[in-house]
Design goal:
Layout (H helix, E strand, L loop, with lengths): L4 H22 L6 H13 L14 H17 L4 H28 L5 E4 L2 E4 L3 H22 L5 E9 L2 E9 L14 E4 L1 H8 L13 E2 L2 E2 L1 E6 L4 E7 L3 E6 L5 E3 L3 E4 L7 E3 L6
Parallel strand pairs: 4-13, 5-12
Antiparallel strand pairs: 1-2, 3-4, 3-10, 6-7, 8-9, 9-12, 10-11
Helix pairs in contact: 1-2, 1-4, 2-3, 3-4
Length: 277
């Protein structure tokens, strides 16, 4: 099989991009698409080590160690040694898994479509095939994200205006939050209790159900709430105005929702991404 440098680099950009995204998901590290692409491009340049003659194969291992370290640094940057080492270790783990799969395919097909040398996998695809498959994969992923709401996963800032005050706090978009008000059908953003106490002064407990605890004509209510570990009632209230800002893009959404008080002191709020319309 002939190995073409341009196809080698392009295919390894795909592979390194997949490795970086996998490492970011496993380590729960936020990463911008631009940094992910930068890391993939930098990492793909080291794939040229496939052309190193066999008599110099001793150079391959140190070069691969350097390439992975540089790739992870280019993609994630450096925050601390522990964080960097954790991401690097996961990147290695993903590389071993994907590399093993590629080597297995190459072995069982006798190198007809995929070949492996010096631990570097090369796929024999033409440039038109790469373009067509790339566009098709992007389209499928885009449709999947739009249907499932996965494109709206991430970290946001919730801005609440009520009681003559404005408070803001971080929130996480999670399709697992299915909590809705029983009467209106509105979604409920589950918030840290400290935030709601700052806004409304106090939060009633289940013993205050009959009292209602009115706040300027609006009452707290209790609705059923079920989690993986427990079930019970959660206090909710309808605020005057709620805006949700995406931290990554700066896009702002208005939301007609209820605010619910978490049973424990959560560090951030949680809402269902379907409210981002």
């Amino acid at each position: 099989m002939f190995i073409y440098a341009d196809i080698l680099i392009i295919t390894n950009i795909y592979v390194d991009f997949l490795l970086i995204k996998s490492a970011s998901v496993i380590t729960r590290s936020r990463i911008k698409a631009s940094r992910c692409i930068l890391g993939a491009v930098v990492g793909s340049l080291f794939s040229l080590a496939i052309f190193i003659p066999s008599e110099y194969r001793a150079l391959v291992l140190p070069l691969k160690l350097v390439s992975s370290a540089v790739t992870v640094f280019s993609a994630f940057g450096y925050e601390s040694f522990g964080q960097y080492f954790r991401r690097l270790a996961v990147f290695y783990l993903c590389s071993f898994i994907y590399g093993g799969i590629g080597t297995c395919i190459a072995w069982n097909t006798n190198g007809r479509f995929i070949t492996a040398r010096h631990g570097i996998v090369y796929a024999d695809f033409s440039m038109p095939a790469l373009v067509i498959t790339s566009v098709s994969a992007y389209f499928i992923i885009y449709i999947f994200k739009r249907i499932t709401g996965a494109d709206r996963q991430g970290t946001y800032k919730v801005i609440v205006s009520d009681m003559g005050k404005v408070v803001s706090f971080e929130a996480v978009s999670d399709t697992g939050n299915l909590l809705k008000d029983s009467f209106t059908g509105k979604n409920v953003i589950v918030c840290p209790r400290s935030v709601l106490c700052e806004l409304y002064g106090s939060i009633p407990d289940t013993e205050d159900i009959s009292a209602g605890n009115a706040v300027q004509g609006r009452k707290w209510r209790f609705i059923p709430c079920t989690t993986i570990s427990s079930s019970g009632l959660i206090a909710v209230i309808c605020p005057r105005e709620v805006c949700i800002k995406c931290i990554e893009t700066g896009e702002i959404f208005r939301a007609d929702v209820y605010l619910g008080a978490a049973s424990n002191e959560a560090s951030s709020a949680v809402f269902n991404p379907e409210i981002l319309v």
